[in-house]
Amino acid sequence: MSTTTTSITLAKISMSPRKRLVMIGMSLVAIMSVTRLWTGFDNLTSSGTIGAALRLTVPIMLAGLAGLWAERVGILNIGIEGMMILGTWFGAFGAWKYGPWIGFLLAILGGSLGGLIHAVATIRFNIDQVISGVVMNLLAFFGVRYLSELVFVGQPQGGISQSPPQSFAIPKIDVPFLAGGPVGSSTTPDALGWLEERGWFIIGDLSGITRGLMSGLSLASLIAVLLVPLSAWVLWRTSFGLRLRSSGEAPEAAESLGVNVIRVRYIGLLISGGFAGLGGGFLSIISSSYYRQGQTAGRGFIGLATMIFGNWRPSGILGGAAVFGYSEGIKLVAGGSITGLFLFILIVSAIIGLISLLQRNIKRGSTAIGIGVIALIAYLTVTEVPESLTQSLPYVITLVVLATASQRLRPPAKAGVPYRPGGGH
Amino acid sequence: MSDTAVAPSGPLGKILTPSRASGLRTSGTTLASSLIAVLIALAISALMLFITGKDPVAAFTTMIDTAKNSDKLLEMMRRATPLIFSATAVAIGFKMNIFNIGVEGQYLFAALMAAEAGSHLSLPGPLHVAAILAVALISGAAWAGISAYLKVRKNVHEVISTIMLNYIALSFIQWIFNSFFRDDSVEGLNVKTTIIAESGWLPDIVEGRLNSMFIIALIVVAIFWVVVYRSRFGFKLRASGYNATAASTAGISATKMTVIALLLSGAVAGLVAMQSVLGETHAYGPSATPIQLGFAGITVALLGRNHPVGIVVAALLFGFLDSTSAQLQLAEVPNSIVKVMQAIIVLTVVIVNEAAVRRANVRTAERARAELAAGGAA
After folding, report:
1. Is residue B190 part of a domain?
2. Distance set, CA B12 to CA A126, A250, B5 (Å)
3. Element (H or E) spanning A268, and its range?
4. For a 10 Å CB count at each end of chain A, is N or C smaller?
5. What angle do CA B315, B320, B322 make, to 5 degrees?
6. Chain A contacts of B12, Cβ < 8 Å?
């Protein structure tokens, strides 16, 4: 199952022409549609699933972007999880005291504080970046526990591992006419919802997917998703971004051209922490209405994983986060009964297998067919997938991608390598 | 993050494999710099307490008072025991320049396997315990073996693979525990595997206070010292960890050393929860078996600078800090400050140490330059 998703993701991230991407996307929707009609497993492309998938994608995506901004300037960030924890706490605190927008601001600042500590330790004092990240995670975990004990204990419904609930929420949008949102005080038709209910081949699926993105859409999700193209634009289209990336690719060369690598790395880590904090804030403000210990549940590491097999690119991170968000979303909506998904994987891997065999790529073909057989057995025998096993999916996929496709990945050349100004003569 | 992303002889190498000639002076400076670092960390913690409106003096007096209580000293040793195993496991990896972040997953997997195996066995006393320990060692090594395979065959960096395997272990353990190993006859929330028969219990040294696992921990540390610092194998391991390329010209295979180091590290990690399994709960349980000890082990190894003596001292220090938390709570100081303090201590120790190493390097370079100049003049 994992490799199938893998090859899909790889197809997306390999710099193939846009046309091919659209074609692959459309054929996936078509296969999903066939599976849905065959099994009657409507949740595969229902707007409910897609909506949940989007909400679950955003924090992972933000964590991935946090990793991107750090590694692009040349610093490994194992501490994303910790910075996210700071974000959940400060976000919940701000949202509880002053409302959700201040909450987000504090979440970003809290994450940046973590980024600053990581920056001082790794840039100013040059300690090992992995060690600093690991300590960051511990510091954040217990630091917010200490803060909770000071601030939340004694408040109504608050405690050492939980904040009091927030009373305000960020507005949610239903797009008028397409997803039935209101215009002024009058209601509009829910066109996509109507189409989705008909359930026609492909049209029903496309409507479900689009409606999922357009109804109950939190303003925060929208802003967060826009940060992906924004990151891409800043990093690849501005001179500031060029300086950032050159600090991660060739700091000595950048220095010789007058780039203040130290400063650039500090900025990169502050932004990285900010993204992680925002991701944490999303969890404690949008996904729920309070801070809870362990709320991040390893999403910082999943984000790190999406960054790796998103090949250190914003679009790849979005794709990877969407795969995880989708698989979490469908689990949430459909419970453990996701047998339709097995059929989908079976069809996809059979097609990939056949094409590969026709192209005489025996290795890929046999792998795909092998996965297809596993999916077939699972489809025929398994009625309910244990929650505890599906949880580990992102981590398994990451290891499989790293083990099978690491030649196609290209990390920033000097990520993880300590740097001292004037050291490159 | 491929192999190229992490410098093979980066600062990790510098911290972990001090290679200066005069061992005595080195350990002197090490001790001094560690002490300075701990003092700085205590100052930062005091500042934190002060800013958040708590009395640092009261907090520290409470902690020192705890040390006067002999029961608390036993508790310190009991709490240090798993940390010694976990830190030793991390240190074995560091000696080969491998960062095993996966101790957490390795020991939890080993704890479940050992507890389950132990509940099925009926052997005479010492043999039963030995069999459980063997299962723990093998299971820990097996889980670490996945990372070893991925590293040497698939070139996946161990930092990433061990992180991912931690999470995979958690779900995998949860699944097998709930589906196969759980003792359903027990009511309530505190579910466990079937309790191990009494022949598989490891006796306490001090009844109810300290288990003999503490002795085993000291033995393992001693073995660690002999193997790493006094055996031919240990020399190869450290040589390869310090500079794999140079070592390979001397016929030391980096691949082989990597595999052995990770397997040994995982095996020792397998013992982390054995104090709980053999001496306390006699079973594995999601809420009964202690967690987070793998990460704590990383901090203890860093604080103890991967040296056997350092690890024991650091584990005892952290065990002592942990043992004060109940008293702190009574004195109305939030006891999470203890854990925060530990993280700050580790961060300052690593920073101060890095600074000390850099200063020593600069001094060596200056001396060499001076000697060269003198030689040139002559």
Report:
1. yes
2. 11, 21, 13
3. helix A261-282
4. C
5. 95
6. 128, 130-131
B134 in Cβ contact with B205 (< 8 Å): no
pLDDT in tens, A32-70: 787 777 777 777 777 888 888 899 999 999 999 999 999
Chain B: nearest CA to A298, how far in angstroms? 8
How would you class A120 by CB atoms within 10 Å of its CB: exposed for 0-12, middle for 13-18, buried for 19 or more? middle
Which stretch of DSSP H or E encloses residue A172?
strand A172-173
Domain that holds residue B247: 71-323
Q: Are A268 and A72 in contact (CB under 8 A)?
A: yes
How far apart CA B378 and CA B373 sit, in angstroms, is 9
Q: For A31, phi and psi rounded to 5 degrees?
A: -65, -40
- pLDDT above 60 for B378: no
Output the six-digit token pair for B90. Answer: 């991390």
pLDDT in tens, B218-264: 999 999 999 999 999 999 999 999 889 999 998 899 999 999 999 99
Residue recorded with tokens 């929650």:
A387
Chain A residue nearest residue B296, CA to CA:
A138
Query: pTM of whole model > 0.80?
Result: yes
Look up residue A357 and give its amino acid. L
Q: What's the domain count of chain B?
A: 1
Phi, psi of A150 (to 5 degrees): -80, -40
Instruction: From A79, A67, A83, A47, select the one nearest A283 (Cα to Cα).
Output: A83
Asked if B347's CB is within 8 angstroms of A139's CB, the reply is yes
Asked if B139 and B270 touch (Cβ cutoff 8 Å), the reply is yes
Contact B340 A139 (CB under 8 A): yes
Angle ∠(A158,A161,A164) on CA atoms, nearest 5: 25
| Helical residues (DSSP H) of chain B, grouped into ranges | 11-16, 23-51, 56-67, 70-95, 103-120, 125-154, 158-176, 213-230, 232-242, 244-249, 254-269, 274, 293-303, 308-323, 325-330, 336-377
Does some domain include residue B197?
Answer: yes
Minimum-distance CB partner of B7 among A392, A395, A417: A417
pLDDT per residue over A205-218, tens digit each?
777 788 878 777 88
- What six digits make up the tokens of A37? 């009609």
- CATH code of the domain containing B135: 1.10.3470
8 A C-beta contact, residue B262 and residue B147: yes
Please give the CATH architecture assigned to the domain spanning A45-174+216-333: Orthogonal Bundle (1.10)
A:259-278 residues touching chain B, CB 8 A cutoff: none
Q: Which residue has the tokens 């880590």?
A: A269
